[in-house]
Structures are given as C-alpha cells and as structure tokens.
UniProtKB/TrEMBL annotation:
Keywords: Membrane, Transmembrane, Transmembrane helix. It comes from the Bacteria. The chain crosses the membrane at residues 18-37, 43-64, 76-95, 107-125, 132-155, 161-178. The keyword Transmembrane helix applies. This is DUF308 domain-containing protein.
Length: 192
C-alpha cells in the first residue's frame, strides 16, 4: 500500500469519510425537517428505518471500496454506481418506475441490481471487469423498459424513457470511470 493519504486513512481520507457519512445524516434529517413545513411529506418510523438502513449500506459499501484502493477513478466509479443503485431502489419503493410502487412489474428492476452485483463478484471487483459489469447493468436497465413496453406496462412513455436514460447514463458513467481506473493500473506501454 502507498502512503496513508492515498489509501484513505490519512487526513484526506478522514475528510471524505466525514463528507460521505455527514451527507447521509443530512439526507436522513431532511424528511424530518420537511414534515415540519408540509403535510405532503408524511414519513413513519418504518420509512426512516428503511431509508437509514439503505444509507448505511450504501455508505458502508463505499467506505469498504475506498479502503481497498487509493485510485480516485475507482472510488468515483463506486460512488456513481452506488448512487444509481440507491436512487433506483428508493424511487422504485417510493413511487414505482413502472406504474405505481405496487405494480409487480417494478420487481424487474431487482434484476438490474442482480446483474450489477453478480458482475462485480465475477469480476472480483477488478476495474476492467467492473466496467463490463456496469455496461451489462445499463443493458439490463434498458431490457426492463423494452419488456415493459412489449407487455404494455409502461404507461407514461416519456417519463419511462427519461428515467431509463438517466439510469443508463449513471451506469455508463460508472463503467467509464472503472475503465479509467483499469488504464491507470496498467503498466506503462501496455494495452488497456
């Protein structure tokens, strides 16, 4: 391992750690604050518990990845992928991406996450394999919408395509960052 600031255990790493966990705490407090000013936000204890658990898993996973490497592109790629997964799950639980949150067709998005997770495991979290895994995840995201369109489940085509484009862009951004991390690991003069 390189010096402590490269692997995340030095001062720079502590600042990033504080920023990640501080942002998570702020996100958890925001709905509570919003509830003081509007009745449109009406969270119960279970909502806060679920959101807190999701934040804990996302931040904990990011912290583990950050401790594994000092490569900034790799860390950024993990952050983007985790953000995409977090937003996908939260939106799906809150309002649903295909119809309402109660539409069983939304369960197909679980398959998108399974593609990403299995791909990461198969790649053993190595950057080149992770890049391929995230491209596969983007393709799985598109496949869900294609299936929904064929079966006639996508009610608002414009919103569905816009959200799909948003998630595909996040998955491909993460893939590109993993590809960059893979090139940075390659010895000088070797083909990436």
């Amino acid at each position: 391992m390189a010096g402590s600031t490269e692997n995340g255990s030095g001062r720079r790493g502590n600042r990033w750690r504080l920023a990640v966990w501080g942002t998570a705490a702020l996100l958890l407090v925001l709905p509570l604050l919003a509830m003081q000013f509007t009745e449109e936000v009406a969270w119960g204890l279970s909502d806060f518990a679920l959101f807190g658990a999701m934040l804990f898993v996302a931040c904990g996973t990011y912290e583990l990845a950050a401790r594994m490497t000092g490569n900034k592109a790799y860390r950024a790629a993990v952050g983007v992928a985790l953000a995409a997964a977090f937003i996908l799950v939260w939106m799906n639980l809150a309002v649903g991406l295909i119809g309402s949150e109660e539409n069983p067709a939304n369960l197909m998005y679980g398959g998108v996450l399974v593609v990403g997770i299995l791909g990461a495991i198969i790649a053993r979290f190595r950057p080149h394999g992770m890049a391929l895994s995230l491209v596969g995840t983007a393709l799985a995201q598109v496949l869900v919408v294609v299936i929904a369109l064929i079966v006639g489940l996508a009610y608002n085509l414009g919103d569905t395509l816009m959200l799909t484009g948003f998630f595909v862009a996040l998955w491909l951004t993460s893939a590109r960052l993993f590809r960059k991390a893979a090139r940075e690991q390659s010895p000088a003069g070797a083909a990436p």
